[in-house]
Amino acid sequence: MLKFDLPYGKGQMKINVPNDRVAGVLVSKAHHFKPEGTEEEIVRTALENPIESKPLRELVRGKENVVIISSDHTRPVPSHVTMPILLEEIRRGNPDAKISILVATGMHRPTTKEELINKYGEEIANNENIIIHDSCDETSLVKIGILPSGGELIINKHAVEADLLISEGFIEPHFFAGFSGGRKSVLPGIASKATILANHCSEFVGSNKARTGKLEGNPIHKDMLYAAEKANLAFILNVVIDADKKVIAAFSGNREKAHYTGCEFVKDLAGVDAVKADIAITTNGGYPLDQNMYQTVKGLTAAEATLKEKGVIIMASECSDGHGGQEFYETFKNALSVKDVMNEITSRGRKETISDQWESQVLSRVLLKYKVILVTSAPKQMIEDMHMTVAPSVESAIEMADEYLGSKDGKITVIPDGVSVVVRG
Known about the structure:
Blueprint: E1 2-8, E2 11-17, E3 22-25, H1 39-48, H2 56-59, E4 65-71, H3 79-93, E5 98-104, H4 113-120, H5 122-127, E6 129-132, E7 141-146, E8 152-156, H6 157-160, E9 164-170, E10 173-174, E11 178-179, H7 193-199, H8 202-205, H9 219-230, E12 233-241, E13 247-253, H10 257-270, E14 271-273, E15 277-283, H11 293-304, E16 307-316, H12 326-333, H13 338-346, H14 357-369, E17 371-375, H15 380-385, E18 389-391, H16 394-405, E19 412-415, E20 422-424
Pfam families: Lar_N (PF09861), LarA_C (PF21113)
Organism: Clostridium brassicae
Protein name: Nickel-dependent lactate racemase
């Protein structure tokens, strides 16, 4: 037996897979990357060497109102490392600046006080001016343009009113935006629901350019770049993290150039060649990304990229927060078949997008091709309502997969962290 430790919730899940059945193990080199210096030193070095930008401490001079867009509780950005250094750098350049931290929730639920403390530490959570973005609160939103896709560009007014807008985030492969980070802080991060819906339309999500690791020609990315430009996002700090959510690299400076540099770094580390197999075992990288089924769709796409036709995906994802989106859940619960879900979504035009349909669209795409077995703490009925199967362990899931495939000799590819890799076909 080959033994694997899979990230699951806030811990690890130990599994055993028959040695003679393992076709390959796909792991990002980021998980074994040995950085030079501590996390703090890596971040400070990046800020001292911004890419195509003046240093942040120079940019803040004379700016009264500085807004920092910060990722929310669903993202594993180590803000307890990055935010204190950003605040120090801003105050070093302008001690009198009014600073606000704008939490980029997109269309997620509001971040709780406990989650803010967990993210930033008590000092920042209790003493800094923190604003939680609400994509549905029209009183806090301002229209600033029209997206290339034709949708209205409406974002949080605190960002629009800033004398200097900056963002902190992290770069990882993203299943339809290509990579996270950079421009995503603005769209979807601090955008209105209507703007996010326009950008996440079925036409764009269905594009073969809107895939993990792809930026060139990606229509979703194009909208996001425009949004960041119109919002005057002046400076970014993006980090790259390993399996332990530790900073291994950081990039600061121009919103596009620094982000592209970071994306190339991640692509080099995360790129793995597909190893075709009958069964793929994967995860969503553990907490916070495996909090719910909504986020878990991302990890499924890595398995999708390495499976043979009509194969089986075994996904280990805790989903302690349930489905993660009521409309997302009910889309599947109320449908007679997955094909019905896909047909309904793809019949909608750009201006007819509904909440969470992009996640439903990608999950439907996967389910139409493969059987999905979930190892999870989520309610069994909930998962079955979403047209998937539940298993109590990965080992029992393999037995279920064998029965489904009609063979006990099927090859297995293991992807310990499905959201950390870019699988090359």
